[in-house]
Amino acid sequence: MWTRRTMLAGLLGLAATAAEAATKSHRSAEAATKSHKSGAAPGSQLDAVIDISHSTNVSDFALARARSNIHGVIHKASEGGDWRDPLYAKRRQAAEAAGLLWGAYHFGTHQYSGAEQARLFLEVARPGPTTLLALDLEFNEPNPSNTMKLRQAEDFVHAVVATTGRHPLIYTTAAWAEGKPMGRTQHRLGGRITEHSILAACPLWLADYRSTPQVPSAWRGKGWHFWQYAGDADDGGPRGRRARQVSGIDRCDRNLFRGDAAALRKFWTEALGNPPTKGKA
Length: 281
Hints:
Elements: H1 4-11, H2 18-21, H3 29-32, E1 45-52, E2 57-58, H4 61-68, E3 72-79, E4 83-84, H5 88-97, E5 101-107, H6 114-125, E6 132-136, H7 150-164, E7 169-172, H8 174-177, E8 204-207, E9 226-230, E10 249-250, E11 253-258, H9 261-269
Parallel strand pairs: 1-3, 3-5, 5-6, 6-7, 7-8, 8-9
Antiparallel strand pairs: 1-11, 2-10, 3-4, 9-11
């Protein structure tokens, strides 16, 4: 999802404040990935969630569960207002049959309104009562002019909540959420996500490939629920290809969950119905 080059460009603008903003309670990913057993202690971080798309080769979800302790999969469902991941439905059936928690994410773009994109996403995702939903809100590096803007993202979330009664995860980085310029084109989100935005009422799925992630100010005090600590490319983080190896799956993004296996299942299946809403924007 998020590339190393894009991330480094955005992080330059935050380097001066990174030390102050880092949350002391977060352990480093190196330590966290050593304790990803299903019986992890309360307050620990569970390394058991991956995110993939049609571009990922999957041979056996059951192996991912049995050998690599993967508990949940978040799969791309749609992009913009007209693109559907051709493997989403087939992969969902196979993953759920293997006992994995299932989630769907939408890659937001600028070409269509937030409401139009939400309609397509829900049509493709076909969420059941335990389907995790997420909006991928990031700089569109291959096509900068087609990058989703803040108001579109808020409209997307409003539409999802109105239809499902549930708040999706927001996948983003601190730099993008703070409205920092990204890439050679210096594109911006179109404003900083504030604590009063409906986006801040959504659980945070944070992308940050450094040892200690930086939480955007809108989520400060709440922190992240998922931390994508390694990407699927060779330059997707300092932990190397080993951190991304999963049995039955070729190259995937790796994510920590803030809690143990029981907390993950509870959050995934129960806690996303009515998170407290701090804003209407």
